[in-house]
Amino acid sequence: MPDATVANLTIREDEAAHFGKLAAEWWDPKGSSAMLHRLNPVRLKFIRRAIDMHWASDVEARKPLSGKSALDVGCGAGLLSEPLARLGADVTGVDAAPENIAAASAHAEGAGLDIRYMAGELAAQDIGTFDLVTAMEVLEHVADKRAFMRELAARLAPDGLMILSTPNRTPQSRVLMVGAAEAVGLIPRGTHDWNDFLTPEELRDLLSGAGLTMGEPEGIAFSPVKGLHLSGDLSLNYIVTARRA
After folding, report:
1. Could you please report the per-residue DSSP string of 176-225?
2. Which one of 15, 24, 30, 98 is at 20 to 30 Å from 187 when CA atoms are compared?
3. What's the pLDDT tens digit per position in 169-213?
4. SS3 17
5. What residues are paired with 241 via a beta bridge?
């Protein structure tokens, strides 16, 4: 399930509307975004480790992003933006759906967090560059993926770190993420088009075309015992870092 539907010049209006309708439930861990609430701690584990490695942070530090800026592209209602702020970052969130931005702003205010949120196309935002750029479950909802990746790269500071996650286009993801998960209501119906999923090789090519080098992907897998967890199994979903080549 995505956190967003931001595209570069080609936002899919139907998808923006789809996720905008979910805005009111975004922060309900038992609502339509329940899967995101389960996914978020797994992503944050990867993000924290990547931050510590990239900037040689103290692994015990509570705010390893102190003094750094972060851009959360496709921020939804702020499920990732808020933890990034708590890690010390000066956070900006961008999303295609105005309803999501309204929900994100209200929730951040209630939590006492100073996060700048903006609605609309990333290319239209005059926001400069950032030390950390994230786009979680976004690429599969972007019409012009190469243009979008170039725009992401343009927002990354010279020594910055980018972190992306996206479903893999495999038979397993078609059956479990599009078929079973949407059928039983774990993910809202109409969330995914399997043909828009990206393999790691395709993502590596997109990043290379934008002047970025992709790190080793790590899978986000599911098992009845562990639930969602980081894994060497890339068949459903995966998360990667990227840096300037």
Report:
1. IIIIIHHHTTSS-TT---GGG---HHHHHHHHHHTTEEE---EEEEEETT
2. 98
3. 998 887 876 654 554 545 666 566 778 899 999 999 999 999 999
4. helix
5. 163
Q: Is 74 annotated as a binding residue?
A: yes
φ/ψ of 84, rounded to 5, equals: -65, -40
Q: Which alpha helices (H) appear in 56-135, and where do they start and end?
A: 81-86, 98-110
Q: What is the distance between the alpha carbons of residues 115 and 7, in angstroms, rounded to a whole number? A: 21
Domain ranges of the chain: 13-244
How confident is the prediction for the chain on average, in pLDDT?
Answer: 88
Which of 126, 168, 139, 162 shows the shortest CA–CA distance to 51? Answer: 162
Annotated ligand binding at 1? The verdict is no
pLDDT given at position 194: 76
Question: Is 136 annotated as belonging to a binding site?
Answer: yes
Is 204 assigned to a binding site? no
Residue 141 exposed, middle or buried by CB count within 10 Å (0-12, 13-18, 19+): buried
pLDDT tens-digit map of 130-141: 999 999 999 998
Q: What is d(CA 134, CA 241) in angstroms, rounded to the nearest whole number?
A: 9
All residues at 6 or more sequence positions from 59 whose CB lies less than 8 Å from its CB, including other chains:
52
Superfamily of domain 13-244, CATH level 4: Vaccinia Virus protein VP39 (3.40.50.150)
Contacts of 140 (CB under 8 A, 6+ apart): 2, 166, 167, 192, 193, 196, 197, 198
